[in-house]
Design a protein that fits this description.
The structure holds two protein chains of two kinds. By secondary structure, chain A is mainly α. Chain A has two domains: 2-236, no CATH class; 249-487, no CATH class. Chain A has helices at residues 2-15, 23-54, 60-82, 91-94, 100-112, 115-133, 138-162, 166-184, 190-203, 209-228, 232-236, 258-270, 272-284, 287-292, 295-298, 301-320, 331-336, 341-362, 371-397, 420-443, 446-462, 464-477, 479-487. In chain A, helix 3 packs antiparallel against helix 8 (166-184), helix 19 runs antiparallel to helix 20 and helix 20 packs across helix 21. Chain A is globular and about 70 Å long. Chain B is an alpha/beta fold. Chain B contains eight helices and ten strands. Chain B has helices at 40-47, 90-100, 105-113, 116-119, 135-145, 165-180, 193-199, 221-229; strands spanning 2-11, 14-24, 29-33, 55-60, 63-64, 75-78, 153-157, 185-189, 202-207, 210-216. In chain B, strand 1 (2-11) and strand 2 (14-24) form a beta hairpin. The longest helix of chain B is centred in the C-terminal third of the chain and has 16 residues, at 165-180. Classes of the chains: A mainly alpha, B alpha/beta.
């Protein structure tokens, strides 16, 4: 039976439209997978030596064990967003004579071979090998390795149970943030305490039973969870959400574009995919931390200009590059209704501008890094509003990928909205602010760079009508192509 | 009202629709029947400028539909579920369409009040998004939305499919009432010969993209159609 399921899965995979969509995307995906795998591999092989050099007094294994708690918490949080539950199309199997047991075991077995379970192995396996080569007790090391594997799989099944529940997820996220804060500001040695647990597991090989039991328990729990829901009216049918209606009358002040704005606000609040984008763009706010805290970038202000643009541009870019794909599900309606493209575009533009302003306000804590940095963020925000918004909207028109609004994006199959054109469009977004800043900076001084970057944005706002007209023309030119493309279900 | 000139649509050399000349006068209730693949939806899509004609064109009230958008204010349609915005409630959807067609909330409410029977208490105040309604109820919402804003041309693709018997009867009543108003041109496609003969003054049969029959509806029409389709 499993064999037959596997062949069905293979057909579903190889015949799905995104699979047949061009070699470039496949290569990029493989590259991305290789990249992440490679990063972990390098980390796994070198972690031992790095830790040994940095903390010569401590045992690298102990240090790793101390921080495992964060590793696993991050794993849970990350999976919640990226790992999609492999909801096999159960319906057709409900009425044909296959044991439910078989279907559920297959379903769970399928999640076990997920990329998310292999990724940690890219770290743990080389790390374990290094330990063995370094002459650590093989029994302890091997038992530890399998414990890690079991923990990872436990998280995998746990994710199944959690994915239905936002509250638990946010609790874990809060725990994670609090844990990092507590550790970072030396309030409480959380890592050390949690490390006791993992170190014990390392020192007493028979303790492998703990994660093993945990894994078995969670597997059984998940099994019975699915078993109970194996009816048409239970988990398989999609849940009907209770509706929270709101008139959104405060948006009426935007005049002509108000109806579209209301729709867009509802679009974002009521669908899974846009919510995901909203969350991701929130993370962009922290992008600056990587750059501003790193001394090597301080001598390369052009990179800082790029980072500053990212701080306020997260939503703008991730939402904007999928205009009009967001409306793909009902694009035919929009095209046959009494809708001027212009107002449609302006609504999206306004939304993006508001997002930039909100991000800008939220980014005020960056003043901590000095007014130079904050000035850069301000100039970057202006660039986003005036130029980046139009470049992104322009890229979106050429995108033409249908999108299922209420389905979360899958990790590593997230080809929706990704093609070579997007890459080309990304170039001016990335190098634009760098160049606009760098030339006057090199020729005159830092302030001149800022002023030029800010002015470029202001110029964009002045020429708003010109840009919108251009984009509108492309919309008109591509109308039929877009309708046809959106008609193909993703 | 609607005039078709040498219209054809082909994909990779295969012609799926070819209509030389077809005139639909203002106020007519016009029915389109044909088996699957006969070109009904293709014709409606061309009429709404959702696909591009391979040759010829359609004029809607003197406006060439694939050259100007001036037909949009007086034309409305419901073709399939992709005309619904799934994450809105029915009310929100009606008001949105209303705003696009220059109708305020009160106007829309007034219109909706006429359809209380048709909705059968399953559309309004449901606290449900359109995507969570059943297929039949989605269709009801879509059809009524197509009547918002005093359109002069109404295009409905298979409006009777998926509806329960009661609603089918009510819909027939609604279409008949609309047809009586002299300035509304209504275009319907259907697989149900009885329904279409009941509500349409004129019936055109499409087969493999060509018009094979053009009948002014009379007592004998149903028989004629049944004979034709049982060939």
């Amino acid at each position: 039976m499993f064999k037959r399921f596997l062949s069905l899965e293979w057909k579903q995979f190889s015949r799905s439209s995104y699979f047949q969509k061009g070699i470039a995307i496949k290569i990029l995906l493989i590259l991305a997978a290789l990249y992440f795998g490679g990063c972990f591999l390098v980390l796994g092989t070198s972690a031992f030596f790095i830790l040994e050099d940095t903390f010569p007094k401590e045992d690298p294994v102990t240090i790793v064990n101390n921080y495992l708690i964060f590793w696993f918490l991050i794993d849970i949080a990350y999976r919640y967003f990226m790992q999609q539950l492999p909801v096999m199309n159960i319906k057709p199997y409900m009425i044909i004579p296959i044991k439910r047991k078989t279907v559920i075991h297959f379903l769970l077995g399928k999640t076990t071979v997920s990329f998310f379970n292999f990724l940690p192995l890219f770290f743990f396996l080389p790390f374990t090998i290094v330990l063995l080569v370094q002459g650590y007790n093989p029994l302890n090391v091997v038992a530890w390795f399998f414990s890690m594997l079991f923990f990872t799989l436990s998280i995998n099944y746990l994710n199944f149970l959690l994915n239905k529940n936002d509250k638990i997820f946010y609790t874990i996220l809060t725990l994670l943030v609090a844990g990092v804060a507590v550790e970072f500001y030396d309030i409480y040695p959380l890592a050390e305490k949690a490390g006791i647990f993992f170190n014990t597991i390392y020192q007493k090989p028979y303790a492998i039973l703990i994660p093993l039991l945990l894994m078995v328990l969670l597997y059984r729990r998940t099994y019975s969870f699915i078993r109970k829901g194996f009816y048409l009216d239970a988990e398989i049918s999609k849940k009907t959400e209770t509706v929270k209606t709101s008139e959104l009358n405060w948006l009426n002040r935007f005049g002509r574009i108000a109806p579209f704005l209301k729709n867009d606000v509802r679009l974002i609040l009521r669908n899974k995919r846009p919510k995901q984008v909203l969350f991701m763009s929130f993370l962009f706010l922290f992008y600056g931390l990587i750059f501003y805290t790193n001394d090597s970038y301080n001598s390369m202000p052009a990179f800082l200009a790029f980072a500053s643009m990212f701080v306020t541009g997260g939503f703008l870019m991730s939402f904007g590059q999928l205009v009009p794909s967001w409306d793909s599900e009902y694009y035919k309606l929009l095209m046959s209704q009494n809708i001027p493209y212009r107002e449609y575009l302006e609504s999206k533009w306004s939304l993006m501008v508001v997002a930039v302003l909100v991000s800008f306000v939220l980014s005020t804590p960056y003043i901590y890094f000095g007014w130079d940095i904050f000035g850069m963020i301000a100039a970057g925000a202006l660039f986003n509003v005036g130029l980046n918004s139009f470049i992104t909207l322009y890229g979106g028109v050429l995108n033409r990928v249908p999108m299922e609004l209420n389905v979360k994006a899958k990790a590593f199959s997230n080809t929706q909205g990704f093609n070579p054109t997007q890459l080309l469009i990304a170039l001016p977004k990335i190098f634009g602010p760098m160049l606009i800043f760098y030339l006057p900076y090199k020729l005159i001084n830092f302030e001149a760079g800022l002023i030029f970057l800010a002015l470029s944005g202001l110029a964009g706002i002045v020429f708003k009508n010109f840009f919108l007209n251009k984009i509108e023309k492309i919309y008109q030119k591509n109308k039929y192509k877009t309708i046809a493309a959106f008609d193909e279900k993703a | 009202m609607i005039h078709v000139n040498n219209l054809s649509k082909s994909y990779n050399g295969t012609t799926v629709l070819h209509i030389n000349d077809l005139e639909i006068p203002k106020g007519q209730s016009f029915g389109l029947v044909g088996n699957n693949g006969a070109g009904k939806t293709t014709f409606f899509s061309l009429l709404l400028d959702l696909i591009q004609p391979s040759s010829g064109n359609i004029t809607n009230n003197e406006v060439i539909v694939n050259e100007s958008e001036a037909w949009k204010p007086f034309t409305s349609s419901f073709i399939d579920e992709s005309f619904l915005i799934g994450y809105l409630t029915a009310e929100e959807y009606f008001y949105f369409i209303g705003e696009l067609r220059g109708q305020n909330k009160a106007d829309v409410d007034k219109l909706l009040a006429n359809f209380e029977d048709f909705f059968h208490g399953e559309i309004l105040q449901q606290k449900k998004y359109l995507r969570d309604l059943s297929k039949g109820n989605q269709k009801k919402a879509g059809i009524v939305a197509a009547l918002i804003g005093n359109p002069e041309v109404i295009i409905l693709d298979e409006p009777f499919a998926n509806l329960d018997p009661t609603t089918q009867i009510r819909l027939k009543q609604i279409i008949k009432e609309l047809a009586e108003e002299k300035n509304i041109t209504i275009l319907i496609s259907s697989h149900d010969l009885i329904h279409v003969t009941e509500v349409c003054e004129r019936i055109v049969v499409l087969d493999k993209g060509e018009t094979v029959k053009d009948i002014k509806t009379s007592e004998a029409t149903l028989q004629e159609l049944e004979t034709y389709f049982s060939r």
